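Q: Joint fold for the lines below.
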Amino acid sequence: MTNEILKQKLSEKFGEQLTEWDEQYGLLTARVQTDTNLKVMQYLYDAEGFQFLTDLTAVHYPERVGEELCVVYHLHNLVANVRLRLKVYVPVEKPDVYTATKIFSGANWMERETYDNFGINFVGHPNLKRILNVDEMDYFPMRKEYQMEDPTRIDKDDEMFGRGGTI
Amino acid sequence: MGRPVQYNTNVKLAPMPEGYSGEGFMATSFDKVVGLARKNSLWPLPFATSCCGIEFMATMGSNYDLARFGSERMGFTPRQCDMLLVAGTIAKKMAPVLRQVYLQMAEPRWVIAIGACASSGGIFDSYPVLQGIDQVIPVDVYVAGCPPRPEAILDGIVKLQDLVHNESLRRRNSPQYKALLDSYAIQ
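A: Joint structure:
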């Protein structure tokens, strides 16, 4: 199995559901419509042997109005050693994505982590609560509008610590 | 022919405290005797989370040998220890655990913050990291370094021994100490 064959199969099967094809550094990438991500992954799991979820995370693109949050799945066919990256875009006002835990049990904690950091609401997740940050945290810290630095520190404010800078 | 007798002359003895001594007796203040005893038998409780913990492991190993200073063995239970050594980055999620460990220690208890992270958050000026353990528990000695060498950790322990040695027996009952604990909402 190669990227070309996989792309051809998926295009025949799902057609317009998969868009924005890309192949950076040899990793085949496609964008999935928000409501069909499970259908595509189930097909990949059953028919194409993508039975390992390497990674599940999210990216925040504040400049993409209406689709600010992007959930990224890395799938791996361990037999043929082929990898595939799927992306789902959702608006930041309503970040609902269907959970992948029914297909991959390993998605459970990764989705909790993604919820913890980006606030993606994984619909159908059995236990969607914070996993890494403190339970009292009342925001999603990896979203770009929040500063990375600890907001309680006031003594690390000079340029040596990179605070107030642009990088 | 007998074996030549060799005496170990390198034994380090704690100096005798000031006092009035005569034939078969010695009178000194209780403070000094208790301080001397406590100082030379500090039971360490290591709370090691990262690279400073590795340096501390070297400190208690044979090369640097923390036992020379009276801390013979690590006690991995807070109830039996009086010196809490926090070595490493403390995440905010870990802070209640650290506080719980401190609360389980019996008085008198002392705390050393080993390394930049435990002292101030270090390079982790970031939302999940506690910016110094003195935000949740009182600290007696801060050891600088990222990570500090075992010599620096030993220096911190010797500094703490000075504190222990000179601490008044009434200090833990003083209003200042109570105010300190109150500021951390302890008790």
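Q: Anything notable?
A: The first strand of chain A starts at residue 18 and ends at 24. The CA atoms of residues 95 and 120 of chain A lie 5 Å apart.
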